Amino acid sequence: MVTGHLQDIMRYAGLGDRLAQAMEYLQQTDFTAMTPGKYDVDGDNIFAIVNEFTTKPYDACEPETHRKYIDIQFMVSGKERFGWAPLLEQKPLMPYSDEQDLLLYQPENLNFLNLSAGMFIIFYPTDIHMPEICVNEPELVKKVVMKIQASAG
Which InterPro entries does the record cross-reference, listed alphabetically (predicted)? Predict the structure, then answer.
């Protein structure tokens, strides 16, 4: 897991060519007027999902991991709390969904970070993460989730 402000994201470009390409896309794109949906960057290798949603109480959220994709989650507007823990010996609550690239877990032993507009967080397949948690009370947020195929990072 890596987190910071968008103005500093290129410090992490050395983490991989696909990650660097996704980071450049984040820096060069104005997401404020973009409508929610999926945006192609490099086919299945890199794409962006623009989301608008209302954050939820902790007990309405679920920790998750992905096997195929690394996430860069970038806050366009609003505030969101994220739970995080390293994936070690935790047992998933369900079988892996290849179609959704998703495993869900119990919300145990998580650490929490609050992100506001202009901030990003990177989650690898070895990171359990619990997004969409409200900071103080539910609020409307706009967020971009960059999906980067993990096989060549």
Answer: NanQ/TabA/YiaL (IPR004375), NanQ/TabA/YiaL_sf (IPR037012)
What is the spatial distance between Cα 109 and Cα 125, in angstroms, rounded to a whole number? 18
Q: What is the CATH number for 135? A: 2.60.120.370
Q: Tell me which residue of 76, 72, 62 sits closest to 129, measured CA to CA.
A: 62
Output the pTM of the full model: 0.94
For the chain, strand residue ranges (E) read 2-5, 37-42, 46-54, 64-65, 69-77, 79-86, 103-104, 111-116, 119-123, 127-133, 140-149
Q: Average of pLDDT values for 24-43? A: 97
Take residue 49 and report the two structure tokens written for it: 């999902």
Q: How many domains does the chain have?
A: 1
Judged by DSSP in three states, 27 sits in helix
For 68, the domain range is 2-92+100-152
